[in-house]
Amino acid sequence: MILILSQSPLEPTTEEVMDWLESLGARCMRLNGEDLDGRAPLALAVDGGEVEIRIAAEGLAMPLSEVRAVWFRRWLGERRHVDARLLDESLAGNYKLDYDLRRQLTLEWRKLSDFLFARLSDRPWLSHPWKASPTKLDVLVRAARHGLATPATLVTTERGELRRFLRRHGAVVTKPIGEVEMFVYDGQRHCMYTAPVDAAAVEELPERFAPSLFQERLDKRYELRVFYLDGECHAMAIFSQLDAQTRLDFRNYNKLRPNRSVPYRLTDRTVAGLRRLMADLDLETGSIDLIHTTDGREVFLEVNPVGQFGMVSRPCNYHLERKVAEHLVRKAEGGARPQG
Predict the structure, then answer these.
(1) Which residues lie across from 196 on neighbouring strands?
(2) pLDDT class for 226, splitting at 50, 70, 90?
(3) 173-196 burial by CB neighbour count: b if 16+ within 10 A, else e?
(4) CA-to-CA distance for 280 and 294, rounded, in angstroms?
(5) What's CA 328's distance to the chain center, in Å?
(6) DSSP string for 304-332
C-alpha cells in the first residue's frame, strides 16, 4: 500500500498519479490534510501498538503497518483557520481570545501530524514534511558552492545599504525571504510576487524597516521551471518576457493570454550542479526555478520540494505523473516490511 499525504481533494495532478498507480497494479490510499480539520469523517484508532486510519465516507480502513511507501505531496497550511468563526457575537471584539483559540487549534493539528509522520518514519518517503520548506538563503549559498550561478542577494533593514546595492547593480527586485503567502481582503486574493525596486521607491522607505530581501534584476531571455526526480531534470522554458504582466514573475499568470512554454535542455554543467545541490539537500524531487539570461547564463533561483509539476508535464509531454507513479512503486517494492 502506498499512502499519499495530500493537501485537499482539489489536486488534479495527485489524482492523475493515483490513476497511474492503479493502472500499474499498485494499491494506494490518499489522506488529505483537510481531513484532519473536521472536513471528513476520519479516525486514527490506536490499539496497543497498532494504528489504523479510517475514512468512513469512502469506506476505507488501513493499518499503518500495511504502508510500504509514502508520498508527501503537500499538507494542510497553517492559515486554514483564517476564515473560521470561533467566537459568538458577544465576544467578537476579543482579538486576544480569538488568536489564542486559533493558536490552540494549530498546535493540536501539529501534534496529530507529528504523530502520523513519526509512525511512518521507517518507511521510504518521496518528499518528507521535515524537508519540505528549506531556507531560501541557505539553498542559494549551497547552490553557489556546487557551481550554480546565483543572483547577487542582500537582506537588510537599512535604506542606505539598499541605496548602495541599487547603485552597484543598476536594477533590483524584492521578494519574500520565506514562502510566498496569499492574503484575502475584501473578497480578493493578493499574492506577494517579485516586484521591482527603483531609486524613487528606495527614497520613499524609512531609514529602518523590517528585514527584507533584495536581488539584482537579471535580464531574462526566458524563465526555466525544472521538475527534478531521482537525478533526472525535466526542464521547460517559459517565454514570460513577451507579456508585461508576467515579465518580472511568471506566477503573475495571464489567464487570457498564457505564456508560451516549450521543452528545454539544460547545459550539462547546470544538470551536474543541480544533482549535487539536491543530494546536499537530501531531496529526491522538487520543482526548481532558474532564469536563462540574455547573456546565455542559467541562473538558479530556488527549489520547492513539493512544487507543482503538472504545468511542466503537459506542455512538454513529459508524462511526469506516470514517472512519479513508477518511482513510488519501486519504493514500495524495495522497502522492507515495517514492524507496525
Answers:
(1) 173
(2) very high
(3) bbbeeeeeeeeeeeeeeeeeebee
(4) 29
(5) 19
(6) ETT---HHHHHHHT--HHHHHHHHHHHHH
